[in-house]
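Consider the subject:
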Amino acid sequence: MRPAGAYFLLAALTVLCLLPFSGRAFHTDDTLFIWAAQNITKHPFNPYGFQLNWEFTQVRMSEVTQNPPLASYYMALAGSVVGWSERALHLAFLLPTLALVLGTYRLAQKFTRSPLLVAFATLLTPGLLVSVSSTMCDPMMLAIWMWAAILWIEGLEPQRPLFLAASALLLAVGELTKYFGASLILLLLAYSFARQRRVGSWAWYLLIPVAVLVGYELLTAKMYGHGLLSTAADFSRKRRLYVHATRTARALVGLSYTGGCTLPALAFAPFLWSRRQVVLGMLWSGLASLLIMRGWVGLGVPVGGPMAFITRHHHWFLISSHLILFIAARTRCRLAVPCIMGPGHICVYRVLELDHQCAQRASTHSRNRHSVGPAFGENP
């Protein structure tokens, strides 16, 4: 398929996948980004200069948020133009998702003969579909991350200063959308050194996002009495100390995150693995699920209460179910697996995920963890 046709097909499928969920209610940390965006419309140079009720305590927003404000600036612009309803903001955040999927295709063209398949797998990854149905900063940062990498790779060989400068600026934008965007600096440094076996003039461009991050830390320290980057790092460190997980728990969490991001690849398991390997994978997955669900594996300090307990049951049951479905599909029709089971397990995941979100919102409302009223203009 020609690139123009592939771009059109990917854009259409992205809209088709996400449009039915554009009316999804705001939940969890969506409210933090919405409150910041509403404050930005009134005080554009002071995004976190307000107070809110968080966990039964009146606190400053600069002490609660652990993310930079660029996604909220984008939301403030969108909200001022199209309104603050769920559908309006979710449709506004569809644009970064389109950029992410199309950027994946563009980048994959440089490393594989099947870039369309890579873009499909990215779009249909359960973690991505759930994340892009929110109004938080993760998908936007990833889209910027992707295009920064594309411009850098295309500007490195042959060296094109304009591309490298644009990539560096996108890097700075990405890290001000979510701090993890800064991880691309080291990745591009390693990639460039591996390609050219030396540190060239391209390295100077990577100092631009570093300088922006330092300037952001100094500016927020002056505005709020503490640098927001160092505050987020300290929050992460304290969380690691608080959750005294066992090594088994850390290993399972790491494998869970890795596996959750690669679930669409299981659609090709019948073509890549023997029947014996697939059955062994199913058995190991089922055993792990049983041990965790029954509490026979020590995971350290229990965190989250009843809702977290239910979520863990859904999580491990779902992974085991995927393997069983793939094995069943292999015995029925090998060719149907990539066409049917891939989208099929996405639908199952979305139904379970939406069901859980409804229960989670009901539980959150009953505990009155924080009011959603300010998200609709009752409080900045």
Residues 333 and 340 are 10 Å apart (CA to CA). The radius of gyration is 22 Å.
